[in-house]
Amino acid sequence: MQDVARLAGVSLGTVSHALNKPEKVSERSLQKVRTAVEQLGFVPNSAARSLAAGSSTTVGLVLTDIDNSLFVDIARGAEDEARKSGHALLLANSDIDLGRQESYLDIFDEARVAGILFTPMNASLEGVDRVRRHGRRIVLVNYAGGRQDCCAVLSDEEYGGYLAARHLIGLGRRRLLFAGGPEEFYAIKERRNGALRAVTEAGNVTMEVIPSRRLKSDEGRKIAAAVADRPAGQMPDGILSPSDRIAAGVIHELMARGLQVPDDVAVIGYDNNHFTTEAAISMSTVSQDGHLMGAEAMAILLDEIRNPDHEHRVLTLKPQLVLRESTLGPNGRPRPEEDRRAGMAPANPAPL
């Protein structure tokens, strides 16, 4: 700024006003500053300006996995809401890495962003406590953890798992497999708990659990390969996965081994990723409204930033079944007797 002031022949204060409050500067001085800025290629330091003003218009968002289109939808919803109030959104992808997740929290904290939207993977929230001690506002997305000092917007993961298992049970499937997912992740545990609730209610259904280290399609192929050669009475006839990508791998491997989906094994995923209608067999799944989740979380965060009397709250959104060929078959509907066993009408399949 000193170089700009020297070239323009004005004071540092005039340069500062020209950059931040141009209405306070005469047109002649404003033009001098603009000319000097252009000649020098000067780029204002937004972080320094925010520090001097005691405020920022930048918000950070730490996502779990950008490969999962649920988190893309969350980001779009958050950005759309932020733009309404002139805030900019910075994205960070932890790529299902707890160390990277913590690192990005610290980076946003050091950048003195106005607030942070955070999609944590497990119950370890030390990073949240750390950035909150520095005065950073933070809203948890898709996780609450029983905290009273943070707002949260989440999907009812337990209910989503319950819906998926109940759907398979309603189709007459009695040997279920919960396929994949790191067991320490909050969302995975909740989805599994919901599935177990449906199994317990049914009374004559079993559910095996095979975890995986990652939420990738190759993990699904490994799990399917591990069970595909079992005798008929030991082979699962219904597979639910806490991840669409794992479910896609399961379907691919089962079909490669000559098994029919859903005749031999019905498969349902989770998250309603964008690719679920594009495979050879469209995938039944549990849908979460990521765009709404992101928009609501951003609205709550901005209210906390502006309002000193803001009260913390938790907003829970209900997931929905989206039923397609991987459980219903090519006709898009189960047989009438299966409808009655399910005690529910199947949802309309998404367009293929």
CATH class category of the largest domain: Alpha Beta
**Unreliable residue runs:** 335-352
Distance between the termini: 58 Å
Q: Count every beta strand, where a strand is a DSSP E run of 2 or more residues.
A: 12
Cα-atom Rg, whole angstroms? Answer: 26 Å
User: How would you sum up the global shape?
Assistant: elongated
Q: Spatial order of the strands in the main sheet?
A: 2-1-3-4-5-11
- Percent range for β-strand residues: 5-15%
InterPro entries: HTH_LacI, LacI/GalR-like_sensor, Lambda_DNA-bd_dom_sf, Peripla_BP_I
Protein name: LacI family transcriptional regulator
GO molecular function: DNA-binding transcription factor activity; transcription cis-regulatory region binding
Keywords: DNA-binding, Transcription, Transcription regulation
What does this structure look like?
InterPro entries: HTH_LacI, LacI/GalR-like_sensor, Lambda_DNA-bd_dom_sf, Peripla_BP_I. The protein is an alpha/beta fold. It is built from 14 helices and twelve strands. The strands form three sheets. The protein has a six-stranded parallel sheet with strand order 2-1-3-4-5-11, with helices on both faces. Strands 7-6-8-9 form a four-stranded parallel sheet, sandwiched between helices. Helix 5 (69-84) runs parallel beside helix 12.
Q: What are the salient characteristics of this protein?
A:
352 residues, alpha/beta, 434 Repressor (Amino-terminal Domain), Rossmann fold, 3 domains, 6-stranded parallel sheet, 4-stranded parallel sheet, 12 strands, elongated, disordered C terminus
Topology:
Elements: H1 2-8, H2 12-20, H3 27-40, H4 46-53, E1 58-63, H5 69-84, E2 88-93, H6 98-110, E3 115-118, H7 126-133, E4 137-141, E5 151-155, H8 157-170, E6 175-179, H9 186-202, E7 206-210, H10 217-228, E8 238-240, H11 244-256, E9 266-268, E10 285-287, H12 290-306, E11 314-317, E12 320-322, H13 325-328, H14 336-342
Parallel strand pairs: 1-2, 1-3, 3-4, 4-5, 5-11, 6-7, 6-8, 8-9
Antiparallel strand pairs: 10-12
Helix pairs in contact: 1-3, 5-12, 6-7, 8-9, 8-14, 10-11
